Amino acid sequence: MPLSLIQNRKSETTMQCCPLCNATTVVPYHQDRRRDYYQCATCLLVFVPPEQHLNASDEKAEYDRHQNSPHDTGYRHFLGRLFTPLLAKLPAGANGLDFGAGPGPTLSLMFEEAGHPMAIYDVFYAPDTQVLMQTYAFITATEVLEHLAQPGKVLAQLIGQLKPGGYLGLMTKRVTTPAAFARWHYINDPTHVCFFSEATFKWWAEKHQLIVEFPGNDTVILQKH
Questions:
Q1: What Pfam families would the database entry show (predicted)?
Q2: What is the DSSP string of 106-117?
């Protein structure tokens, strides 16, 4: 690579800002034919720079192709990886919010069937911002974090909506090593722009005084004091 391009690359790197913790010290992590991936030196989040994100209409077009349905037993089983460990922690009748419910809300129905009143929010399919003004005993966000352009802002908002002692249940596949990342099918989805590792979740939990546990290799439960 010509020196001028390397210098330009370094200049671009210094201008990137971590979308989780806002740190400006980021380094190149991976590059493929379509996108660049950076890693934050502070919280270790791996992310795609904003200028390489899809626009809103193209992003929604990708989601419109999803075929998830509450009648799909396989999908319910998939969601059970978060539903089962989180349900075991909840007191009877605890109210919840399913954030980023998508075009076929299912996890919310599973909790309702278990006796928990639920609200849903999705920026494209259920954009009722009134539900973002209320507090909840628990909030879920399954396969949501990887789509967020501003995960730090969104996560702080969700923690702010939790009642004391409340739970935030998350599902997203986690970064392990650069070598695994390079061959990871997860990065081929153009709507996936943020990639968390276990270390990133631990960093974020400590910063916000949260208890964190990992019931599965793609699930996280955070508890507010």
A1: Methyltransf_23
A2: -HHHHHHHTT--
Task: For residue 1, give both structure tokens.
Answer: 């690579």
- State the Cα–Cα distance between residues 173 and 52, nearest whole angstrom: 21
Instruction: Quote the longest CA-to-CA distance of the chain.
Output: 64
What is the pTM (predicted TM-score) of this model?
A: 0.92
Query: Which of the four CATH numbers 3.40.50.720, 3.30.1330.10, 3.40.50.150, 3.90.950.20 does domain 26-224 have?
Result: 3.40.50.150
Closest C-alpha to 219, from 53, 114, 65, 81: 81
Encode pLDDT of 62-90 as tens digits. 999 987 889 899 999 999 999 999 999 99
For strands 162-171 and 219-224, give the pairing: antiparallel
How far apart are alpha carbons 132 and 97 in whole angstroms? 9
